[in-house]
Structure prediction request, 800 residues.
Amino acid sequence: MQFPTHARPRSIAIWTAVALIGAVGWSMLALYRDEEVSAAWMVAAALGSYAIGYRFYARYIQTRVLRADPTRATPAERVNDGVDFHPTDRRVLLGHHFAGISGAGPLVGPVLAAQMGYLPGTIWIIVGVIFAGAVQDMVVLFFSTRRDGKSLGQIAREEIGPVGGIAAVIAVFAIMIILLAVLALVVVNALAESPWGTFSVGLTIPIALFMGVYLRYLRPGRVAEVTVIGVALLLLAIASGRWVANSGLADTFTLSPRTLVICLVIYGFAASVAPVWLLLVPRDYLSTFMKIGTIVLLAFALVVTLPGLQMEAVTDFAGNGEGPVFAGSLFPFVFITIACGAVSGFHALISSGTTPKMIQKETQVRTIGYGAMLMESGVAIMAITAACVLDPGVYFAMNASPAVIGDTLQSASETISSWGFSVTPEQLAAAAESVEEESLLSRTGGAPTLALGLAAILADILGGDAMMSFWYHFAIMFEALFILTAIDAGTRVGRFIVQDAVASLHPRFGRMRATNWLPGIAFSSAVVVALWGYLLWVGVNDPLGGINTLFPVFGISNQLLAAVALAVCTVLLVKSGRLRHVWVTLVPLTWLAVVTFTASWQKVFSGDPAVGFWSRRNQYQDGIDADQLLPGAADLDDMRTIVTNATVDAVISAVLALLVLIVFADALRVCVRAVRNPDAVRLRESPHVPSKLVAPAGLIPTSEERAELVAAGLGPGGGIPEQSTGPRATAKAEAGE
Amino acid sequence: MRRAAAWLRWYVTELTGENAYARHVARVREADATAPVPSRRAFERERLERRYGDPRNGGGVCC
Prediction:
């Protein structure tokens, strides 16, 4: 594929208009200072920038840097076993890949980052995705496609070496444990003391069990059918939650955070030990459907209502680092907090696992890899918009810990008003009442805030104020559902890693690897659950507030994983003779390395006890020694808890940073060797096999691609010409057109 | 409208993998029209086992 040497006037006019729309959007967001800014400018800035990034930068990467080769058969075409490897229509694969990469991260991070105003977060979500996040996803997808769909860990082991490879696997495991603890903490904070939420989310378990049995025994494989039934039951569960919350059963479902932790730990263990068809698979279907459905609904509602942003563009917390939601200044912490919406290390695991085994053409990596990540970034933009639509006073009341704003409406209103965001106790009470919750004070974790913003936007077009509480609990359900699915799946992945690690310690433990030996499964599940359960317990019991402590650790770990993925990409670019273009991954890698190591350093060693774990530990230890209570602690037990938590957090942050340094050092060694002696480089690429498959690269075929499809007698989905005769291909072509 | 509904139906069945069985049967029968095919229940079990058997490679955990 070549760049056209003479661009057509029409194309120049269109792209100039797109650039202008984006530029106007950015100018309005950055410069408009009176009253509220319309979300329309947010949409314009985001969509304009995405379009330019996708059309020009992603295309440059695909054609010039990666030199994606349409004549080379992908693993899906070569292996095509009809199960794992199967050339999948690009439009279907885009949905599949997006469902795989999207999770709770881009919904939570931007909400927390909104404490610094809407502008810093929005800039990083958009700039970060164009130059870092989407590039990472696309490049990993490309290289994994060239290697039969091998995972990131396997590629790291083969192309870098055993030391870097093992460090990468340990880092992935540690990061996953932190992820699970933080996600679980978000759910706990959203469901604590909320009988409506607890009841309806609890009902998802029997619903999933029913779906599992239905799919296994009653009507195997009828996924769409059972999902429709499941979603209907889910909506019923949300509606019946209100009835339960107003009945005598309310007390039964009003659970404290500690009780919820115990429930979640038991649930995680059970889900990991139980067969997948019973719980995990149906939950997967349910949460995928809810995810895509709600995101589409929200995007529609946002574009129709175009609400005004109440939050300031940049608050004082961006400069002074004393924000109540998380401590630390704009650099590096806004980047750490946004995390998945701009660049996420976890996507590298999806881009290197399932998707490369299904892609039809190498030339589709831009559509699938870059395109899906732009959509994910769009979700993050919606989340930050939803948070900024709320009254800032309500936002801070929901996201500051009780150690800062106290636990009465009066004290919260006074503290928050003293920051310059005036809010009355009556306003806070009215906000809680509008969604039928007892209180919204210190509902940290981002989920309740997002749910409130989302409810306000959705109620604007569907149902008005009367539906506010339904939409609020709908949003809570939507987030809790896929967080619980992540907990199921994550515990299981962790279990496999533990089983494998124990089995390779000594030949006597070989039996641990067996996937049907119950004691082994139970033991390794218990290990994984205990690890994240401990961190969750620490977070729930932290007198200074769990989310503001744990979320930065999670953000750092996620961005470190992204840095590892970008380091692997950089090594591959160097080794495959693309040294001239190595800046494409080296620039975001350097940026992420600077951000994450600065953040790690500050979290461990900063002299400010609000930021640095070590100085917090010392401060409270000194307090204990002097028999003196410090702010946030009600008694000496609280003081001891704070000391233990700060120590644990400091150790985790330091160990993660060290692991990633090992990977970097090993990657650098391989790169230097490859540059010095290019002839000795051994690439583990699969051989070039000519491709027979015809398929367009983008979602909408170009006129040349359309002519090629017609000549080959294929529908818009593409396929292999000689195989595509017969009723099946015609039916597919008809349906696809 | 009807075409949109048909497209949506096609998209959903593709996305959920609901037509994996039909595709498999067609694949087997393409070579030999009398070849034995597994029952749907057996096929779906096998497929699930392969998809979730080892979750370490893209195990569906994301954030």
